[in-house]
Amino acid sequence: MADTLLSSRAASPETATRSAIGLGPSDESGLVTGAPVRDVLPPPGELVEPGRALALADFGPPALGLGERFIRLAYRLGVPGSTLNAPFTKAARPRLLATVVSPLPGSKMAGTALRAGHFLVHGVKSPIAQIDFAGAGRMAPPLERTVHSFAWLADLEACAPRETVAPVAQRVLAAWLDANRKLPSKPGKGPAWSIDNAGNRLLSWLVHAPLILGGEDRALRTRTFEAMADTARWLDKNVGRAEDRLAEVAGWCGIVAAGLLLPQGKPRRLFGESGLIRALGEMVGDDGGVLSRSPLGQIEAIALLVRLRACYQAVKRDMPQALETMLDLLVPPLLALTHGDGSLGSWQGGWAIDAGDVAALVEASGVRTRPLRDIRQWGYQRVVAQKGVLQFDAAPPPLAKHARTGCASTLAFEFSHSGQRIVINCGGAGCAGGLIPARLEQGLRASAAHSTLVLDDANSTAVLINGRIGGGVSEVDVDRRTLIGERNAGATRIEASHNGYASRFGLIHRRILILRDDGSELRGEDLLVPASGKGKAGKVGFAIRFHLGAGVDVGLSEDGKGAGLALADGTYWQFRVGGEGQVTIEESLWADGQGRPHPVQQLVIQGLVSRGGGSFSWLLKKMG
User: Fold this and answer.
1) Could you give the 3-state DSSP secondary structure of residue 483?
2) pTM over 0.85
3) Which CATH topology does 374-622 take?
């Protein structure tokens, strides 16, 4: 199948009986005895169509009158905006029509570093004087994005009064303009001239214009206005050549903002609104999750629309209803990846972004909503059981055309209790090049960097360079139901399987997770099932990895079949495995809320398994 497929289907009776672990009696190890339970099923699963069919392609441009439709068409065909807006008058002098109030706070720490002469990105200081603004000498990707998108303007504005930091902004801007005097004919001629960086840069210039247009240097002010106009015209011509859909959305946001805030901009605004709404419809799934399945992409899409809405507000216009609706759709999927403390799980290249940053973004969006519950294309199952939060990747990786930091994380999970992360993923591929070395980027996207099963040290989906992914998982089956056991003890059970190892090893990986409603017990079973009726001969190495949160002290049991986990909040958890499995402890790495690396540990169940299949059960339980 060319595209990926995510479907829901009922589990077999045998699987349902086996997965009843945790609600019936247990043996001495606390694992499965298979007592039957009564399953309370949700409505039957709904088939979700592959890949692109899930995009909101029917998102249409705002309804316009005949005259405005003509203006939009003529502008798209290349008629200058000044001709369409006021054909018999002189071109308006360069100026801004309004001052935008920045809706998103920057980093005070990063702004202070800028005042001291350094860019501070994910813990690494880079002297401004040593930055090659022309892009001949490539920088680490996070620094490159920060410098050329001018995202640092928000940091400067956050750290001190405007009159204090404006000279710093203007010195850096002048250096950048000196190094980028000539616009390339098409995107890709250096990092400054990707559609993503150019769109974000124009939007940043317009939102933070008082920082760069104030002062006594009239020549710099003139050059800045010229750069804004030139960048807007360049985006008009090249936005369709964007690197991906998110970059295209950034380019369209820059175009619309210029149409709102620069003189004679109505034709550009009409042109930009149409393109932006269409691009958003092709980037976002039917449940509001971006098709890259990345929380980083979700955050950037929300931030772009929030900043663009501030531009509309500055000129006292309402943002088109389609854009408001899109903003309403984008927030719930992001909240679905928050743990109990409000910070994000580490998925698809993201890291454990701080709760304060997430809360500030959601507050600026103005969207008051709950985390997404109807999981479709976004693909992350979320279970909240009192103080316990389970996140489960129950979908294929994104299509290659959408992936920026695509990860082979299918059937990985994270689990936290009372805001303390117990089982995690490493995360941080998207900030590699800061304190996390760039050479680790591909490793952090691998299956082994996630809490899931790995066969023969191979990724379930191929991890390629430049954030791309190749073949592997193309189909995931998901079944979610509520269980009621003895004394009305309840639990949520999720079963999912993927075919990422079918072609190489002839095996399907199936994972069953059962979380008690009180959040004190998570039971799991990892099964390897022959992809065809008869399994292949021989054995293959396997490893089931459970990366542990920062601050979790771990010690193995004497029999090697379990471990004790002491959490920072004073609670104690026990991890046990059934059957022939043995537990070992290995080193791991975790990226914190600022993208900085921390050494952590991981529990690993490993050995050889028959190509005819196998089963491995385990238990994570709060003691006392």
Assistant:
1) strand
2) yes
3) Beta-galactosidase; Chain A, domain 5 (2.70.98)
